[in-house]
Amino acid sequence: MDPLVLSRWQFAITTSYHFLFVPLSVGLGLLVAIMETLYMNRRREIYRRMAVYWGHFFLISVAMGVVTGIVLEFQFGLNWARFSRYVGDVFGPPLAIESWAAFFLESVFIGVWLYGRKALSIRMQVFSIWMVTLGAMLSAFWIISANAFMQEPAGYVLRNNRVELVNFLAVALNHKALYMCGHTILACIVTTSFFVLGVCAWHFLRNTAEQDFFRRSMKLAILTGLVSLLGVIVLGHFMARDMAQHQPMKLAAAEAIWETRTDGRESLFAVIDEPARRNKVDITVPWLLNVMVFDSLQGTIKGMKPLQEEQVVLSGPGNYIPPVTLTYWSFRLMIFSGITMLLLLLVLAVTVFRRKIVLPRWFQWALIAAVMLPHIANITGWIVTEVGRQPWAVYGLLLTSAGSTAGLAAATALSSLILFTLIYTVLAFIAASLIIRQIKKGP
Amino acid sequence: MDLPTFWFIIVAWLLAGFFFLEGFDYGVGMLLPFLSKEEAQRRMIISSIGGVWDGNEVWMVSAGAVLFASFPSWYATLFSSLYIVFTLILCGLILRGIGIKFRNLREDHRWRAVWDWLICTGSFTAAFFWGVVVGDLLQGLPITDQQVFAGGIRDIFTPFSLTAALAVVSLFLLHGAVYLNIKLSGDVLGKLKRLLPIIFLVALLMAAVFLLLGYLRLGMLCSPAELILAGLAVAALIACGISILRKADLTAFWASGTVILLIVSLVFTFLYPRVLISTLDPRWTLTVQNASSSPYSLKVMSVVAIFFIPTTLLYQAWTYWVLRKRVEHSDRY
Question: Cβ separation of A116 and B97 shorter than 8 Å?
């Protein structure tokens, strides 16, 4: 087996596990911080109990997020040594700053928040959990600004066979990074909201004691979920516009557009024949694509074929088309999950806030199933971003195949891949079992 | 002082901080199953590091990220050469990290017993293989002119690097033991105090063997600076032993911490200006100059670091102040 392929799998698997838990830890941190603040200001026991109950899930997800995150940081050096050498000058500083400005904040305060209850005043306790949440969000910001450099390189020059930093602010405040960061953090809050909704629905179905507890939790989750999801959609729209301008190949792949398209047809279902570079079946609706990308009925989306030819002129012979089927279907799945979540939240908002109306049982079950929706959207969203960027590691500058560690033996790469996958799978099951126990136990 | 040298010192300082802080919580992790079989006492042992170990581990994360940012070639070559070593460190870190967080989440005897052993082996694995990294940094690796590792497993695990690994493990054990000595209370202290002299003697022996082997095989301790640092380290270690005997618990802890700081300083003094020694050809050795980032990049980070590093130190120190009390039997988390 090719060590390059193994390294890519390892990165994809570790990142996916990481992002299964990180959104929950970011969102639950915020939720717990809000609940503790409510308790501090209103001194009502229910808010304290809510903080404790949801805090339990928070701790499980933080633990999983941290241990999977460390692997990601080391992995650049382990499997992607040539990438690290090539981009370290630009890519490293956001990571280093992340560790001082964000990760320290999160980790130091989580310890004192958890173990300092006896020693701290309630004010300092609430301050600590807000610092944890702030740290988690700042952390997302710096990591994503590093990632944005791989999507749309900015603030660099090519010198000494590598990219060198010339404008730090252009990297840190890369417009791509700002969109992505907002989109991602809000998606974390949506993920958490749906988790809370699912747990609440389970308790309503079982008719457990604590109806008031879960009704309050549900209201908070509907509010945070709806506001964040609208934000996710608006920022997603800006990202699509940005993609059309800066990463046209990724957009063309996400839409399975081979020839340049001016009539704005949006594909709903396509059977893609990648080797032949055409779609066997393509069911489309008119105008929608142009509305999504350009806010207008007019617009031209370049196809993958002309883009491929342009890239060959720029970068020499090679295939510059990403895996189309995967990108296309991931994109559709993400949008489908997003729309479903929006509909669910709208229905919920209307019913729950009009009080008396009781939700039908099938709808409660739907809410439990919907816990998976944001996770599907998260993972497929990252697939569009990262797979759609292929064959580049750094868009237009460094091919993924030129970034892997030279001389890495296949057996070595395979054994670490198996080891990490095994450990993560077992741990994910254990974490899931702990989460389910806690759900059943109730507050 | 030029910028790359400044950042070399920052890297050394972060690693020293990491070894000092995580040194004791790795030590505590390794000692956990041996100090007590009773749940209440084990819980006290976990609680002694529960509130601080997350923050300690960030020192390692920060060292890694700073290495990446300030010396990309050093980071890339070191990590890819020691692929197996770092993979095992990561596995150890995952298991102990999850163990510390998960063990208390279920009231189940077997559940806790399994996690306690995983915390122990995870801590040992991480400590041992960090020791191998230290050994390999000192002895060098077969690195080609393309900065590619051209050796095998025998170039990584040598008698010297294994000695370094055992020395690191035993120093961390000592550091963890003297930390517990200032944090615990009640019956569990008795067992710890009986073990302390043995742990100390093992640490003293391993430190001596490590320094001796370094002198014989690598020509360490040949410059006055190295000699002074090594001398001070040995003196601090002996001071630690005397403090244990005299029951000056806090002094013993600071003394063992000083030993760790001095040994890390010795390692980096020996290396400078080299960062990764090539055993194939001295011309291929990575140095502070040829492995560093561009001056602009280092300048940006210097500005950010001057603000953030002191701030971070302040609030981390504050959490140690908040959690300064000895852990008592009645504490529940």
Answer: no
d(CA A191, CA A189): 5
pLDDT at A356 (0 to 100): 56
Token couple for B60: 């390692």
Q: At the top level of CATH, which class does the domain B3-292 belong to?
A: mainly alpha
pLDDT > 70 fraction of chain B, expressed in percent and rounded: 98
Helix crossing, B295-322 with B3-35: angle to 10°? 30
Place of tokens 């980032």: B293
Contact status of B50 with chain A (Cβ, < 8 Å): yes
Q: How many CB pairs under 8 A join A and B?
A: 221
- Residue ranges in A247-297 assigned as alpha helix (H): 248-254, 288-294
ipTM of this complex prediction, to 2 decimal places: 0.90
Q: Which of B78, B80, B69, B118 is nearest to B97 (CA)?
A: B118
* B61, B76, B149 ranked by CB distance to A84: nearest: B76
> Which of A195, A226, A142 has its CA nearest to residue A25?
A195
Q: What is the mean pLDDT of residues A246-256?
A: 91
Note the pTM of the prediction, 2 decimals.
0.92
H helices within A156-287, ranges in order?
168-172, 175-206, 211-246, 248-254
Give the H or E element holding residue A373.
helix A372-387
Token digits of residue A185: 């953090």
Copy the structure tokens of residue B27.
């030590």
Task: Say which of A60, A93, A99 has its CB closest to residue B58.
Answer: A99
Residues on chain A touching B296 (C-beta within 8 angstroms):
164-166
Q: CB of A96 within 8 Å of any CB in chain B?
A: yes
pLDDT tens digits, A345-378:
999 888 877 765 677 888 889 999 999 999 999 9
* Neighbouring residues of A440: CB distance < 8 A, sequence distance ≥ 6: none
B87, A78 contact by CB (below 8 A): yes
Provide the chain A residues 190-229 that lie in CB contact (below 8 A) with chain B: none
Q: What is the pLDDT of residues A18-54, one digit of tens each?
A: 999 999 999 999 999 999 999 999 988 889 899 999 9
The model's pLDDT over B278-319, given as tens digits with 9 standing for 90+, comes to 999 999 999 998 989 999 999 999 999 999 989 999 999 999
First to last CA, chain A: 50
Residue A184 CA to residue A162 CA, distance in Å, equals 29
B249 touches chain A (CB under 8 A): no
